[in-house]
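Exercise: predict the structure of this protein bound to magnesium ion.
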Amino acid sequence: MNNALWEQAADEIRRSIGDNHFRTWISQLEFAGLESGVVRFHAPTNFVGDWVKRNYTDRILRALGNVGAAAERVEISASRGAERAAPAPGRPANGKADPEPAPARVATGDPDLPGAPLDGRFRFDNFVVGKPNALAHAAARRVAEAGPVTFNPLFLYGGVGLGKTHLMHAIAWELQAAQPELRVLYLSAEQFMYRFVQALRDKQVMDFKGLFRSVDVLMVDDVQFIAGKESTQEEFFHTFNALVDQNRQIVISADRAPGEIQNMEERIRSRLQCGLVVDLHPTDYELRLGILQQKAEQYADTYGKMTIVSGVLEFLAHRITTNVRVLEGALTRLFAFASLVGRAIDMDLVQECLADILRASEQRVTVEEIQRKVAEHYNVRLADIIGPKRMRTIARPRQVAMYLSKELTSRSLPEIGRRFGGRDHTTIMHGVRKIDSLRGSDRQLAEDLDLLRRLLQS
Ligand code: ADP
Ligand code: MG
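Solution:
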């Protein structure tokens, strides 16, 4: 059997267990072959391997059977001495993985609408309200009441993992429960684009337009995605206007304020601003603790009741300040590990399981600091690190700064790009790769990186 068959099977597994579980467990596996009824995988750690074997063996075998690659047994080895210190399933340290335990109950609402499934856990009931998100929550509540449209659109923005998608799903759930006949369409801007391109290809643009203009409530998540995508923006703009004209509610989210979305047409930006624009602020300690307490209760349903030694949640709320997804990931890991080894969740377990996350949240280095230190180190001007000059004496230090920003902060490439004078994320990626490939052969560069790292982390 080849990898492609496994990928098909994996796809089926993804659909049946949901993205979050998939990412945490199955996507960690490296397919190593199927022979005489035994399918083999490598896992990054014994912990992941054991967990997958215990919980997903049947699913894996069934999915393989369905793609015509029947097997009777799953064997998983921890790959090539890669056992890490922490029995880490995901890699929340870089803010990517977001393991979550409760299986997502999913509903699609109106089956005729091309929307994305709603996550059953994203409801107002389990949205913890605190100072940083109170306004966004109140506005979302208001929209969910579906009274007369008072602000259109509702524009929610904020950093990764602060609850934008959660609130949007909550609105959709609430509306559908109260008024089943309402046509509520939720989708990501990426899906909007995908459908539009598909319609163009299949010459069904009129159907597309008709459909999108027929909904009562349109919710588009992560609208920054269509920045720079001209024809999609154009279509979005027309859909948007048509709905506003008919007094239909629109809810939009983005990772930044409308005015800050680059490569977005001015007329669209100003349209986006003409309703209510609210931001979700970074979480504070109380909110994080509230969220942890609530999640701990929920996780007990999945993993069984676990003893959490007092002080542990407080410690996590204090230390993990990046985003809620990382916080959840940390708690998932603790529950998974504690249930596996039958231990209480105490500070020892925290140190063992979360070493990487804790280390990452220790280094609260900012991109600005990195730029400043790099400029100093190479004797160039800070303005030049950020600016457009292309000569090598400046470009190389700039790439070093990009590389360190990626390594030492949890900023995404687009976020880093913005801090480098609005460069595109591909430019940042190029810079990061460049340094990554050079540092193996260039001793001086490797030393520079070490020195800068130490300076920044001291
Ligand atoms: P965003 O869309 O802003 O990136 P999400 O809505 O996907 O963030 O939230 C990330 C995770 O954090 C989700 O699992 C969500 O349920 C959880 N979360 C975020 N804020 C809260 C909150 N205030 N209360 C409970 N869970 C939250
Ligand atoms: Mg989101």
